[in-house]
Design a protein that fits this description.
The complex is a heterodimer of chains A (459) and B (292). Chain A has 459 residues and is mainly alpha-helical. Chain A has two domains: 3-154, no CATH class; 227-458, MetI-like fold (Orthogonal Bundle), CATH 1.10.3720. Chain A is 76% helix and 1% strand. The longest helix of chain A is centred in the middle third of the chain and has 41 residues, at 156-196. By secondary structure, chain B is of the alpha/beta class. Chain B is built from eleven helices and eleven strands. The two termini of chain B are 16 Å apart. Chain B has one domain: Rossmann fold (3-Layer(aba) Sandwich), CATH 3.40.50. Helix content of chain B is 34%, strand content 24%. In chain B, strands 1-11-10-4-9-8-7 form a seven-stranded mixed sheet, with helices on both faces. Classes of the chains: A mainly alpha (459), B alpha/beta (292).
Chain lengths: 459, 292
């Protein structure tokens, strides 16, 4: 039986089970004198029966589908006398067998392959039939068991809710396990990288030139993996971005929260937040095509040397991108400062600006710091703008007019194009990713901690 | 006496009373003018024909009242009667509420409180305020008290500032409790201590008038008793207007009591007279607990 048909059949069985449970409960209620005599509502009895019927069968089906391919392959390949030695060769052979079994014949198949293909077909059909039979038997059997076990005293609701709780926990775990999985894979690949390049060289080396020789006789590509220029580049671009975003964002937040009339506020706040909705790639070409040439020309007119791709251009545009983060978060915290504090300050004869500077901002400061830290971690992780506007040259420089490169840009360039996945060049991307992950993790952790502490103060 | 229609009046918001049409007419016929002694000879604050509007709604109707030098005037009345609104006119704290409009003559020492040429900053330095809920700044105890003198440039040297802080805390009866932890946050004090800290903060700028808006409503009886003692001591140097929900408190701390009803000033008299021999039927109904 085909798998989709089986699914449809199971679904039908589940519906039947629900209906049976539901109607049994109704009948029991009618004969025993009202719904209140039942331990749960009829729909819970329906769900209870349906879960008994469907859940184990679907689980079995899922596990079966996950493993049957591997088992069939193992069985088929074991039956072949002279297998190729390499993994690639075995893959090729198995693909050939599968194709033959599916009827896509190409060329002349050896008798050995033909026998294997027949075996494959038998195994697969057997597996499908067994799978269908087992899951249907399981569904019908357990469904019948649940129907037979029915009694008005059965606490169906509690059982159903227990299962639902399990479903909720599974969903919640999915995100956590994904994070852990990503972290682990990055970690292990990084460890592989550190086997070929010492971690001290990676962390403290001043030269970044990740070109590996493809052939032994290739010239001038020994590969250097000192990541310090990348770190300083990232720091410089982020610092320029924060230099733009923090004052502008904070002041616009102060204006919106303290000075703007209600009408201006309801209009201006969403408009500022639109900035956050602009795709970063749009910011990127804005930076590369408009801002960077403008900065170069400006610098030239002042008699300074400037590269056409500069840290300043990328940082400025990134700062503009981050403004809404800072302003929106700060605006929320400033609004959360109790009016009574403002009244207290005004009642002592403070001017509006004294109230804001000396009372409101200090009271909101922890929250503002939290917001700024979140913005920093966003700036460090930002990729598109720097790819387009900051350049690729790993210069170790403090001059914002020169082109620099960042961790994220290097990850992109390391993984773009044809690469072996076991050369240090590609593995370096994982090491860089790990650094990035750790630094944003620490920043987020501090930021959330600070924000939480602030919340406790006023709740 | 027809008090039936008045019971519902306690429901209105304290800052934005919206008296029902029928009741407003009803009171208008009853409150033609204020009964008792609204005026005095040596007035510190002089208010004449004050009307306050929140947008369309009128919160204060034609109130005239004097507050004398070194006098404590208590303002009582059911919730939403406009007593807090009236108090907040005296140092223009109503300016912070959008859509609030004040008409009439208000004067502090014969200088107008409202007007195009009046700067609210020095006005509020002269007319301090203590709020219903203690609202110390999230700073140290010392910084809380030193805040006012610093922004007004009252003290130039550290030693002067220290002296002002100590004096203010002493007068607020808090010095002995906090002298060893002046650098600890003011928000860490108990409710009663916080309120006394707010009073110390208010008197640190040496105001002439102190407005108190239900200063004890968030405090327990012991803390309340301390504040009441304090008010009595402060009377020697300051003029005090206090809004309170507790009639006992009004009786204990004030020399004159003003009874507000639906935005009208019904009766002002010596406190003893108000509580023993009220002149107006509405006052009598309120203090005998028939409504409010």
């Amino acid at each position: 039986m085909q798998t989709p048909t089986l699914f449809a059949l199971l679904l039908l069985l589940i519906l039947v089970a629900y209906g049976t449970g539901f109607s049994r409960a109704l009948t029991a209620a009618r004969t025993s004198g009202g719904l209140r005599k039942l331990a749960s509502l009829p729909s819970y009895y329906g769900l209870h029966t349906a879960l008994w019927c469907g859940l184990p069968a679907l689980l079995l089906l899922g596990i079966w589908l996950a493993f049957d391919d591997a088992i069939i392959r193992a069985l088929v390949m074991n039956g072949i006398a002279d297998k190729p030695d390499t993994v690639a060769g075995q893959n090729l052979l198995y693909a050939q067998i599968q194709n033959l079994a599916a009827g896509h014949l190409f060329g002349e198949a050896s008798p050995q392959v033909q026998a294997a293909a027949e075996r494959f077909t038998d195994l697969r059909n057997g597996s499908r039939n067994l799978q269908a039979a087992l899951s249907l038997i399981l569904a019908i059997g357990l469904g019948a068991f649940a129907v037979l076990r029915f009694s008005p005293q059965l606490r169906a609701r509690e059982k159903v809710e227990k299962v639902l709780r399990g479903v909720l926990i599974t969903c919640a775990c999915a995100a956590i396990f994904t994070t852990v999985g990503i972290l682990l894979s990055v970690l292990f690949e990084s460890l592989r990288f550190f086997q070929s390049v010492p971690i001290t060289e990676f962390l403290f080396g001043l030269h970044w030139s990740p070109q590996m020789a493809l052939r032994a006789d290739q010239v001038g590509s020994s590969g250097a993996f000192g990541a310090v220029p990348l770190f300083t580049g990232t720091l410089m671009v982020s610092a320029i971005a924060m230099f733009v975003a923090v004052p502008v964002g904070l002041m616009s937040a102060i204006y919106l929260a303290e000075y703007a009339s209600k009408r201006v506020r309801t209009f201006a706040k969403p408009v500022i937040e639109i900035l956050a909705g602009v795709p970063t790639v749009v910011y990127g070409f804005f930076a590369a095509l408009t801002v960077a040439p403008f900065i170069r020309d400006l610098a030239m007119s002042m008699g300074l040397q400037a590269s056409s791709e500069s840290a300043l251009a990328a940082g400025l545009v990134m700062g503009i991108m981050i403004i809404p983060f800072v302003s929106s978060l700060s605006d929320d915290v400033i609004n959360a400062v109790p009016q009574s504090l403002r009244d207290g300050a005004l009642g002592l004869g403070s001017t509006k600006s004294e109230t804001v500077r000396k009372v409101v901002i200090p009271a909101a400061l922890p929250g503002i710091v939290g917001g700024v830290l979140l913005a920093v971690s966003r700036a460090i992780g930002e990729t598109m703008i720097v790819v387009m506007a900051a350049g690729l040259a790993a210069n170790l420089t403090a001059n914002p007019l020169e082109s620099v490169t960042t961790v994220t840009v290097q990850i992109v360039t390391l993984l773009v194009g044809d690469q072996e996945f076991d050369s240090p060049k590609t593995l370096a991307a994982f090491a860089l990713g790990l650094m990035l992950f750790l630094s944003t993790l620490v920043l987020n952790f501090i930021a959330l901690h600070v924000v939480k502490k602030y919340r406790e103060q006023y709740d | 006496m027809n008090t039936m229609t008045l019971d519902a009046t306690g429901q209105a918001e304290p800052v934005q009373p919206k008296p029902l049409e029928k009741e407003a007419v009803d009171t208008k016929t009853k409150v033609r003018e204020t009964v008792g002694k609204p005026f005095c000879d040596s007035a510190k604050l002089r208010m004449r024909n004050v009307n306050v509007f929140y947008g369309e709604a009128q919160a204060i109707h034609d109130v005239s009242l004097d507050i004398g030098r070194n006098e404590v005037v208590a303002m009582i009345g059911p919730s939403g009667c406009g007593k807090s609104t009236f108090l907040r006119c005296l140092n223009r704290m109503n300016d912070t509420i959008e859509g609030c409009r004040v008409e009439g003559e208000l004067a502090l020492d014969d200088e107008p409180i409202y007007g195009p040429k009046v700067d609210v900053v020095p006005l509020r330095a002269r007319v301090g305020m203590v709020f219903q809920k203690p609202n110390p700044f999230p700073k140290s105890i010392y910084e809380n008290v030193a805040y006012g003198p610093k922004i007004h440039g009252i003290a130039s040297r550290r030693a002067e500032l220290d002296e002002i802080v100590e004096n203010s805390l002493r007068r607020a009866g808090l010095w002995n409790e906090v002298k060893d932890r002046l650098d600890k946050p003011g928000t860490g004090l108990s409710g009663g201590q916080q309120q006394r800290l707010c009073i110390a903060r208010a008197i640190a700028v040496s105001p002439e008038v102190i407005l108190m808006d239900e200063p004890c409503s968030a405090l327990d009886p012991i803390a309340t008793a301390r504040i009441e003692e304090l008010i009595d001591e402060l009377r020697e140097n300051y003029t005090i207007a206090i809004v309170t929900h507790s009639m006992q408190q009004a009786a204990r701390v004030s020399q004159r009591t003003a009874y507000f009803h639906l935005g009208h000033l019904v009766e002002v008299n010596d406190t003893e007279t108000v509580f023993t021999n009220p002149q107006h039927e509405l006052t009598e109904a309120y203090i005998t607990g028939r409504f409010g």
